[in-house]
Amino acid sequence: MKAWQFIGVGKPLERVELPDPVAGPGEIVIDIKAAGLCHSDVSYMDGTITSLLAHVPIVLGHEIAGVVSAVGSGVTAFRLGQRVGIPATVHSPGTAHDGGFADKVVAIAEQCVHVPDGVAFEQAAPAMDAARTAYRGLVTAGHVAAGTTVGIIGFGGLGSLAVQIAHALDAIVYVAEVNEAAWDEARSMGASGVAADIRAFEDKGLDVIVDFAGYGTTTAAAIDAVRPRGRVVQVGLAREMATISAQKITMKEISYVGAANGEKAEAEAVLALMACGKIRSEVLLISFDDIPASLKKLEQGGVRGRFVAVP
């Protein structure tokens, strides 16, 4: 099979031919129909988080959706021809072993989820990481539900999904986004208000603020803007360190929590929302051959939407 292999920090991906994977006990082989590109892939390649990879060289690509083409012994939850996705973790393809920038991939069956017929593969792939992470930040960590007043900082790939998820849950949503060109889109997805700084909505009684940017200054703004006894959830990590007011956290009795990645049930939840048309990713379709150049564009910044490679 053809694959794009990461061979070392600072080096371009290398086009290689590898043997087709074989399903061992408890495993399935998936013919890849869509593979999402993520900023994490850039961080693996530039040395930022390369240490998380189980080995190098490795085929990257951890947002994967496709069709089961082989089933190993002991697998009962999947059969040939079924539509599946692989929720991304450090133990899944693209990090623990060869991933989705290839024709096929092998995965542990119990890590995988069924993709509903109503969800296109190019939507299912980013759901395995981006949408699921947004859901975890909002619902699992943020406890957002119907009637919650929530602030979303950053209207990028995750933030735009978070706005849709919050709206689908009948929450009241306010968005902080420095790029004014994205404001109308945020409103069209259900935002009740949009501004450059979340502190513009301090008078709205924000129960929860989820920071998908993570620039430090955005986290400090969230601490300022959230209501007393409110909750601030950290998802974005644009900066390692943030200077925040311990005094405000204490006197306002704020809960400050982190949310990273997600679990299988959260992937199933976002697929269900996609199946009923309540959320979708802004997808930029590319070919297999376009993967290296598209990763370079991600590295340079300014990309709106999620690159997804399809056959």
Distinctive features:
311 residues, alpha/beta, seven-stranded mixed beta sheet, six-stranded parallel beta sheet, 16 strands, 27% helix, globular
Q: Would you kindly provide a written description of the structure presented here, covering whatever features stand out?
A:
The two termini are 13 Å apart. The model has no long low-confidence stretch (mean pLDDT 96). Helix content is 27%, strand content 24%. By secondary structure, it is α/β, with parallel strands linked by helices. Strands 3, 5, 6, 7, 8, 15 and 16 form a 7-stranded mixed sheet that branches. A 6-stranded parallel sheet has the order 11-10-9-12-13-14, with helices on both faces. The protein has 8 helices and 16 strands. Helix 2 packs across helix 3 (157-168) and helix 2 (121-141) packs across helix 7 (264-275).
